[in-house]
Design goal:
Chain A is 37% helix and 12% strand. By secondary structure, chain A is an alpha+beta fold. Chain A folds into 2 domains: 108 residues, Roll (Ubiquitin-like (UB roll)); 130 residues, Orthogonal Bundle (Fumarate Reductase Iron-sulfur Protein, Chain B, domain 2). The longest helix of chain A has 16 residues. The longest helix of chain B has 31 residues. The chains are: A alpha+beta (247), B mainly alpha (208). At the A-B interface, strand 4, helix 8 and helix 9 of A face helix 3 and helix 7 of B.
Amino acid sequence: MNLTLKVWRQKGANVKGALETYQVKANEHMSFLEMLDVLNEDLISQGKEPVAFAHDCREGICGTCNLVIDGRPHGPQQGTTVCQLHMRAFKDGQTIVVEPWRAAAFPIIKDLVVDRSSFDAIIQAGGFISVNTGQAQDGNAIPIEKDTASLAFDAATCIGCGACVAACPNGSAMLFTSAKVSHLALMPQGKVEHEKRVQKMVAQMDLEGFGNCSNTGACEVECPKEISISNIARLNRSYVGSVLSSD
Amino acid sequence: MSLTGLFLILFLVIHLIGNLQLLIDDGGRTFNEYAYLMTNNPLIKVISYGNYFFILLHAFQGILLWRQNASAKGQKYAVSTSNNASWASKNMGPLGLIILAFIVLHMWQFWYQMKFGGLPTATYDGLEVKNLYGPVSEAFSQLPFVIFYVVCMAFIALHLSHGFQSAFQSLGLNHKKYTPAIKFLGTAYSILVPLGFAIIPVFFFLFR
C-alpha cells in the first residue's frame, strides 16, 4: 500500500518544527512502527536524517511509542498502543498525520520524541511503598476480595504512556496519577501510606505543570489500557479526605 | 468549582420557582409580593449575599482554571482530537464568561431597578410594594430581549449539561449504581430548568 505521511520534524527542544510530507510503501501486515522503520530505511538510503520516534517493547506493555496519529493518541484503534496498531487499519493511498504528544509538561526532545520524566517525578513523589514488603505472598495469605483485586489490577495496567495527557484539552495528568494512586490504595500493603501518597503525588503533578481535570472524559477514551475515570473520582475523594484529616 | 457550582444549581431552582409566579394571571400581584419578600426577609438577604459571593468565586476559580489549563496544554495539534469529549465539557470557560456577562446585564436590568431604581409602587391590602412586574413585562414585550433571554438560557443549558455531573465527579462521587442516575438527573436538570426560564419571556411576548 502507498501512503502519504505528514510527520512532525523538529531538530531540537527549542527549535521551531513543522510537518513534512513523505511517501512510503508499506504492507498491511506491518505495525505502524514497522512502517516508520521502512520510512527511516528509505531516508537513510537517501542520505537524509531519519525520523526520531520512541519505541521499546513493541508488544504493548512499555508505553514508549507516543504518537498522535490523525489527531488521536496511539491512532484510530480502541485500547491499543501504536506498536499494536497495524497498517490494515488504514486504506491504500491514505494521508496520515503523525505528531508527538503535545503538553507543556512533555517538552519535545526531537521530532516525535517527548520528555516524559515529569511522570517519573510524580512516581518518585510517592508512587511506591516505603518498606520492603518481602517476597510475593502465598496465594491466599492475605485475603483480598476478587472484585477489589480486579479493580486494583485494572488500575495497575497503566503503562504510563501519557496518552491521557496528550488527549486532555487541559494537559492534565489526573488519569495517570489516579491509576497509580488507586492500584496501591486498594491493596493492604499500599493502604498504609495512602493519604500522604495522595497529597505528595498531586502536589508534584501540579509542580510539573500539568493542567487541572475538568472531567471531559477525553483521557479514558484514548487510554490504551482503557483505564476508567472512576479512578480520578477515587483520587478526588482521597485527596479531599486526606486534606481534611491531616494535621 | 464543584461546591460553588452545586450551590448555584440549587439557587437556579429557587430562582425558577420565584419566576414562574410571573405566569400567574393576576396583574403581577403574586410576583410583586414575592419580590417584596425576597428583598426584605433578613434570612434571604444573608443567603443572597452568599449567592453574589459564590457567583463571583465560581467565576474567579473558573478563570484561574482556564488560564492554568491553557498554559498546560502545549502547542495545538495539526489534526484536532475533538471527537473525544462533549463540546460543552471543553468550552466551560467561554460558556461561563458568556453567562457572567448575561448575569451582569440581567442584574442591571431587574435587580438594580428593584434595589436602587425608582420603581412605581403597587399597594396590596395596605402593603406598598415595588412593582417589579412592570419592567419585566415591558422588557419581554420587546422581541430582541425575548430572543436574548432565550439564547442565554441555551448557553446556561450547555454549561449545566456538563457542570451538573462534573461537580459530582470532582467531589469523588463516582459509583456504578449512582453515576448513571446523576448523569440522567443532570441531563434532565440542564434541559428543564433553562427551558422553564425561557418559557417566561416567550409567554409574555405571545400572550401578555
